[in-house]
């Protein structure tokens, strides 16, 4: 009895250290326990496997299995579920399948969570048919599906573009007596919103209210974001007011979503009022809130106030992210302060932000709009990473500068490289050539565009 209690206490200590990412101390506790005659059990090692999977990596977690076997402890279904979940987190489908097969080979019967995780991995890897087969196996086997099984299936279908099938599954489950919880409703509402089916999302929201469940902050925020995304701003603001009445605006996320929408609407005064209200309500600002505020100041042309916020962020113990710097670079470019934008871009590189393509795109566009097209072309040539926006922006700006032949060459190099470019940019080049009297060149370019699309799209 004392030994079991001691092992239980050992496991509590290890779990506590693992939760705060102090794995070395957790390992030291095991060694101390063995010295005192308190031996670890399967729970001890499962806690370590889960922690290594979450904080270090799948290989480090898998190495714990060898130590388990050396200690005479056999891994169980929980051990393998943690490993499969770790592989799934990093979209390692083949590794997940190997672990599942290894579990079966070891004579360990998988449980519903094993199947749920495998199903989730198939969905994450863009293989909905295989995920559906796993779901069918669960239904036809002796394993009873749990609400999470249905949630994984509905979420996976929505994220893979099968929202209609997700809704159909939801209805079938209801007919067979399944009572959905708030999580299921939120998943379906989110999927419907992202696929642009706002009407269907509202129907589900109405059913949610009629079911006796109360919509939560996630439900309202999802609907609100969908309204703003589909440019139904007034309806989005109505949802926000309803959130406030029900006390769901307890963090900065909802406020920042509304402020962003108001800025897009050009309602800067209202955006300022909303920001002031958020601060008055004592809501603590996070980096997203600061980014929203910096964007607001940039839109108003208050660049000094925006720059001052960078100091405030650092004093508050937070770190600016790449979006903070990108917003500021964009604001400086739009204010015509190209030198300031370039200095900040160099500062951003010096701070170690590698993936700053969006910042480069903003600076490139700013150079062109300031009439520095040649400098923009030199910068373009030096850029290692380029995306559709890079090409589209430069083609548009070359057309504005009436340099249609240069725009034509850039357009073709983009398409021949397999890169997509906005149709508006393509039209700008063709229309520009025609309006400048280069009708024959426009016809040739049109044919070359069609050929490039056939070979690469």
From TrEMBL:
<feature type="repeat" description="PPR">
    <location>
        <begin position="251"/>
        <end position="285"/>
    </location>
</feature>
<feature type="repeat" description="PPR">
    <location>
        <begin position="41"/>
        <end position="75"/>
    </location>
</feature>
<dbReference type="InterPro" id="IPR011990">
    <property type="entry name" value="TPR-like_helical_dom_sf"/>
</dbReference>
<dbReference type="GO" id="GO:0003729">
    <property type="term" value="F:mRNA binding"/>
</dbReference>
<protein>
    <recommendedName>
        <fullName>Pentacotripeptide-repeat region of PRORP domain-containing protein</fullName>
    </recommendedName>
</protein>
<feature type="repeat" description="PPR">
    <location>
        <begin position="146"/>
        <end position="180"/>
    </location>
</feature>
<feature type="repeat" description="PPR">
    <location>
        <begin position="321"/>
        <end position="355"/>
    </location>
</feature>
<feature type="repeat" description="PPR">
    <location>
        <begin position="111"/>
        <end position="145"/>
    </location>
</feature>
<feature type="repeat" description="PPR">
    <location>
        <begin position="181"/>
        <end position="215"/>
    </location>
</feature>
<dbReference type="Pfam" id="PF01535">
    <property type="entry name" value="PPR"/>
</dbReference>
<dbReference type="Pfam" id="PF13041">
    <property type="entry name" value="PPR_2"/>
</dbReference>
<feature type="repeat" description="PPR">
    <location>
        <begin position="76"/>
        <end position="110"/>
    </location>
</feature>
<feature type="repeat" description="PPR">
    <location>
        <begin position="356"/>
        <end position="390"/>
    </location>
</feature>
<dbReference type="Pfam" id="PF12854">
    <property type="entry name" value="PPR_1"/>
</dbReference>
<keyword id="KW-0677">Repeat</keyword>
<dbReference type="InterPro" id="IPR002885">
    <property type="entry name" value="PPR_rpt"/>
</dbReference>
<comment type="similarity">
    <text>Belongs to the PPR family. P subfamily.</text>
</comment>
<feature type="repeat" description="PPR">
    <location>
        <begin position="216"/>
        <end position="250"/>
    </location>
</feature>
<feature type="repeat" description="PPR">
    <location>
        <begin position="286"/>
        <end position="320"/>
    </location>
</feature>
């Amino acid at each position: 009895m004392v030994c079991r209690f001691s092992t239980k206490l050992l496991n509590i200590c290890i779990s506590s250290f693992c939760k705060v990412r102090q794995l070395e101390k957790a390992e030291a506790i095991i060694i101390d326990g063995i010295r005192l005659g308190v031996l670890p059990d399967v729970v001890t090692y499962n806690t370590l496997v889960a922690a290594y999977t979450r904080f270090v990596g799948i290989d480090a977690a898998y190495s714990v299995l060898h130590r388990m076997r050396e200690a005479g402890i056999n891994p169980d279904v929980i051990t393998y579920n943690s490993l499969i979940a770790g592989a799934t987190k990093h979209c390692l489908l083949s590794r997940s399948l190997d672990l599942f097969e290894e579990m079966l080979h070891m004579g360990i019967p998988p449980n519903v969570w094993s199947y749920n995780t495998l199903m989730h991995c198939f969905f994450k890897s863009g293989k909905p048919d295989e995920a559906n087969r796993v779901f069918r196996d669960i239904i036809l086997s002796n394993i009873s599906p749990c609400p999470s099984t249905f949630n994984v299936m509905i979420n996976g279908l929505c994220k893979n573009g099968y929202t209609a099938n997700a809704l159909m599954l939801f209805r079938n489950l209801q007919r067979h007596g399944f009572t959905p919880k708030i999580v299921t409703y939120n998943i379906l509402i989110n999927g419907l919103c992202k696929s642009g089916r706002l009407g269907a999302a509202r129907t589900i929201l109405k059913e949610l209210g009629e079911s006796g469940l109360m919509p939560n902050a996630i439900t309202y925020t999802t609907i609100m974001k969908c309204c703003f995304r589909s440019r139904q701003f007034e309806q989005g603001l109505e949802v926000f007011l309803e959130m406030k009445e029900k006390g769901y605006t307890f963090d900065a996320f909802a406020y920042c979503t509304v402020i962003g929408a108001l800025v897009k609407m050009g309602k800067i005064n209202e955006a300022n009022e909303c920001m002031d209200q958020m601060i008055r309500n004592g809501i603590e600002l996070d980096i997203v809130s600061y980014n929203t505020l910096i964007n607001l100041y940039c839109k108003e042309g208050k660049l000094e106030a925006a720059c001052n916020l960078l100091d405030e962020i650092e004093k508050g113990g937070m770190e600016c992210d790449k979006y903070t710097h990108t917003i500021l670079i964009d604001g400086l470019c739009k204010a015509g302060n190209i030198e300031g934008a370039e200095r900040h871009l160099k500062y951003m590189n010096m701070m170690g932000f590698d993936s700053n393509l969006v910042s480069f795109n903003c600076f490139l566009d700013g150079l062109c709009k300031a009439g520095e097209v040649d400098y923009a072309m030199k910068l373009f040539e030096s850029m290692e990473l380029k995306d559709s926006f890079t090409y589209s922006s430069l083609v548009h700006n070359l057309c504005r500068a009436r340099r249609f032949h240069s725009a034509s060459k850039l357009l073709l190099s983009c398409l021949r490289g397999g890169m997509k470019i906005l149709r508006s940019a393509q039209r700008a080049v063709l229309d520009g050539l025609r309006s400048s009297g280069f009708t024959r060149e426009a016809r040739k370019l049109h044919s070359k565009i069609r050929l490039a699309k056939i070979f690469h799209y």
